[in-house]
Write a structure and sequence with these properties.
The structure is a single chain. The chain is an alpha+beta fold. The chain is 39% helix and 23% strand. It has three helices and six strands, in the order E-H-E-H-E-E-E-E-H. The strands form three sheets. A two-stranded parallel ribbon has the order 1-2. The longest helix is centred in the C-terminal third of the chain and has 22 residues.
Length: 110
């Protein structure tokens, strides 16, 4: 499964995320786009995924955040960080996802 958290829940309501998923033909139900309380999301980004997320002063971009994607395995261990703005990094992420899927299949074997 893939989960994307909005870092701007004031703008990205459930309806907005649903429209985004439809417009970009996301891999629903495998890819979940979620929202929630901003403090909780920031805390998760900073303390859970070790990524910056800060609200910026008025008149600037609303929120500053990292372009990094984090690969987390089924045991909630961070397996890697990948720059969403670099195609080679995204390619590496896709390879790592294949590896995780292979590992999961191996652990299911008797």
């Amino acid at each position: 499964k893939m989960v994307s958290y909005t870092i701007d829940p004031e703008t990205d309501s459930v309806a907005v995320l649903k429209d985004y998923a439809t417009a970009h033909k996301t891999m629903y139900p495998q890819w979940k786009l979620v929202t929630g309380d901003q403090q909780t999301i920031f805390r998760l980004a900073i303390h859970g995924y070790m990524l910056p997320a800060v609200k910026t002063p008025e008149g600037q971009e609303k929120i500053t955040h990292s372009p990094m994607m984090v690969l987390v395995d089924e045991k909630s261990r961070i397996r890697g960080f990948y720059n969403a703005l670099e195609p080679s990094s995204v390619d590496t992420l896709l390879d790592e996802i294949k590896l995780l899927r292979w590992e999961a299949r191996q652990s299911d074997k008797p």
